[in-house]
Write a structure and sequence with these properties.
The protein has 2 helices and 10 strands, in the order H-H-E-E-E-E-E-E-E-E-E-E. By secondary structure, the protein is an alpha+beta fold.
């Protein structure tokens, strides 16, 4: 019994010490002004792509405000996820593509009142060769609180094709 009490006391002490450290870590995060321009996208969106297909997107601020999760679906195609994160004065994205690779892109350094975010390819995981098809560029343009546009550029064998998505807020 004495050993159990000692172990329980040690476990409680570890939790008590970890809680202030976690709270301190949470309070130290200050999102960049540019990243903060994207977080109001949180909610549900509907639109069309340049091929006339219906597109839906939802955004959720996650990980204690350190990331913005996008869930994108075009017609009956598989859902894709994109995670937007602050990276100093830049904003970075990792796109989890239904083609099976994960392109990572990043903006140039941005000021506080950015309305256009141009993400340039940095690298990709699970990409067999640079010639394999992958998302290579993304531009997000914020028109107002209820409208925005995405331009996705797919690159394969050195040739790019851009699709434009126009969104309106649903909720």
């Amino acid at each position: 019994m004495h050993v159990r009490c000692t172990l329980a006391a040690a476990a409680l002490a570890a939790v008590a010490l970890a809680a202030p450290a976690a709270a301190q870590m949470e309070h130290n995060f200050k999102p960049s002004p540019a990243f903060s321009q994207l977080t109001p996208l949180a909610g549900e969106w509907e639109g069309q792509n340049s091929a006339g297909k219906t597109v839906t997107a939802s955004y959720q601020v996650v990980s204690g405000g350190t990331a913005l999760l996008e869930r994108l679906r075009t017609g009956d195609e598989p859902e894709m996820l994109t995670v937007y994160t602050p990276d100093g004065d830049h904003v970075a994205v990792t796109h989890f593509c239904s083609s099976g690779n994960q392109p990572q892109m990043r903006t140039v350094a941005l000021g506080g009142d950015a309305k256009t975010f141009s993400f340039t390819f940095v690298r990709a995981t699970n990409l067999p060769t640079p010639e394999t098809g992958h998302m290579h560029h993304l531009t997000v343009t914020l028109q107002d609180k209820d409208h925005f546009t995405q331009e996705w550029t797919w690159q394969e064998k050195g040739t790019g094709h851009t699709a434009v998505f126009h969104f309106t807020r649903k909720a």
